[in-house]
Model the fold of this input.
Amino acid sequence: MQVFLWILIFLATFFIMEFNAWFTHKFIMHGFLWNLHRDHHHKDHNSWFERNDAFFIFYAVVSMGCWYLWGEHNLWYFLPIGIGIMAYGLAYFIVHDIFIHQRFKWLRNIDNKYARGVRRAHKIHHKHLGKDKGENFGMLIVPFKYYK
Done:
């Protein structure tokens, strides 16, 4: 029974992170922390790193905090939460930074309806260079109108 709960908590955390990414992007990155996110829309420096990368650090600290609570306080349910946050972060990094933005030259030749939909939705998001209209659709949930 505990294995079932562990898997359920992991999956729930992973999918809740999709909502969390949307909410954070719309209301925080395009809100009061626009100073950190702006260079993701309009690069104003020569560095490979972006100020926007600071958001990865935040979620890594939250994930590590969950691992700490599991290890030091024997709270078993924090392990699947921490791993779920980490798994979402890894999936987001692969889809967003590697596949869409090509920060590494991998996964360039993927071409299917889902991949085209993700790229198209993200391109529409990035046509707005300013703080306003910061809507995005998340990594997993992309409206079907973008699948062609």
